[in-house]
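Q: Got a minute? One more chain.
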Amino acid sequence: MKKLFTLALISLMTVSLMAQKSEQKLYLLFEFMQVNDENGSDYWKVEDFWSGIHKQRIADKQIIGWDLWSLTPAGTKQGSQFMTVTLFSSLKDMLQPGGFEDIVASAKKAYPKMTEKEINEMLDKTVKSRDIANQIYLEQIDKTKGDFQMKVGTVATMDIMKQLEDGYEKAESEIFKPWHQKMVDTDKTEGWQLLRVILPSGGDGFGTHITVSMYKDMAQLATFMEAPMGDIDYMTQSAATAGFKTREWKEKKIAALEKMVR
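A: Always. Here it is, folded:
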């Protein structure tokens, strides 16, 4: 009996540790890029070059992933045309990603046949091809369950929210997340997550949170946007109405995945 109890305890601890590992924190750096039409071709070459560097950074355990997304709407007066997302396993790694020398070192490892002059030329072209309009440091604080795997062509909607009351995050998790989970379970969407802005911070900030909904392609997104929301019972509707009061919806962007490195 004692042995059985010990084995059960060990099994329970193992499951608990595995659950903790699966719920590991995720930190994200969003960098919004403004690219002029005349620099479009150079920008694609630059991001191809950087994808190799990020692949090396993953191998060296500096980051856990990197994506390039194109944004809609993307008019020259509407802000950024592209966004890169770099994924980190800790806040420390995100806030201390390394300096210029570290990037050069990663580039040399990623491209051993390139000369230092050629690497510096590509880094110089990087600066000239785009402007980093905004950087946002975020942490993932909630998400739906599912086994969706992103690939090039994946589409995401990003809703920028500004928290008005302390109960905002609770409202997202307890009121809106179950509805998003139902959308995932019925194959209307592929996933949902709630991100909290770490930096920039302060009362004058544009947004405090970003909710992200994932779709396998533009066709699925279009079907979702055109479909009726379905019947909502009175209690759910009342709770949602209360939840809406906890935040201000600032802006929606649609993003299409162009490149990814894992």
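A: The helical segments are 2-22, 40-59, 91-95, 100-110, 116-129, 168-185, 218-226, 234-244.
Q: Perfect, thanks.
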